[in-house]
Structure formats: structure tokens, C-alpha cells
Amino acid sequence: MAESGPEEEELAHAEVLELFQEGLARLVQDPLLCDLPVQGTVEEINSQIALEYGQAMTVRVCKADEEVMPVVVVQNASVLDLKKAIQRYVQLKQEREGGRQHISWTYVWRTYHLSFAGEKMTDDKKKLREYGIRNRDEVCFIKKLRK
């Protein structure tokens, strides 16, 4: 019996990857998942399903350039959870667009607050619902003032 070489393993991996991508492309044609990109991640699929079951909500995050990022978080998410979700959203978007510039999130969070209805969201542990944030509400970045 002949051993399979590394070329056969790579081909098999490529074939499996292609089959997976085809299956995923069919999956995202489902009306429940049609908002997802064709190259959607498992995390994005799970988030979309959680949205449909009412276990998650979309927070519309407004950037200074007026771009709106639809970020999905669980219903009982904290401000810190929202910040992490924003970071994941931006990272995935950059990867899909081919750009890979480094963002210093430490700098971003030191320089900007998130704000909802004119209130600065300064407590990372506070739940979004304590600020009154519900599904499809808008949260904006506002520059912190120097002390």
C-alpha cells in the first residue's frame, strides 16, 4: 500500500474547503441567513440565529465618517461586550476588504466614548439595557475631552 504524499493531503484539504464553501453559500441563501456574507464565519451564523430567536440584538454603531456598523450582541450584553463586538466587526470587515491595517483599540477606547441618547457610556460593566438600549438603537463614538 502506497503512502499518500503531502500533495494529496493538500488537494484533499482544498477539496474539503471548496465543498464547505459551496455548502456555506447554499446555507446563506436561506431567508434567515441572507444578510450574511458568503464567506460568513460560524460566529456570524450563530449571531444571526440568536437574533432570530430574540436572544441577541443589533446595535447600530455610528462612526465619525457617518458609516453605520450593525453590530450583534446578546440581549444582556455589557458595554465591554459591545466594544469587543465592534472590534470583531471591524477586524472581519478589514479581512474581507483585503486591508489589514493595525488598529490600536487601546488608543481608540482611551480617546473615544460610546454614547447613547446623549449619555456617555463610561462604565464597561454596565449592561446596555441599563442605558435603555434596545434592538436597532444607535450608539455613536464621541471624542473624550481632556481633563
TrEMBL record:
Q: Which Gene3D superfamilies match?
A: Phosphatidylinositol 3-kinase Catalytic Subunit, Chain A, domain 1 (3.10.20.90)
SNRNP25 ubiquitin-like domain mapped to chain residues: 57-145
The source's superkingdom equals Eukaryota
A GO BP entry: mRNA splicing, via spliceosome
One Gene Ontology cellular component annotation held by this UniProt entry: intercellular bridge
* Protein name stated in the entry: Small nuclear ribonucleoprotein U11/U12 subunit 25
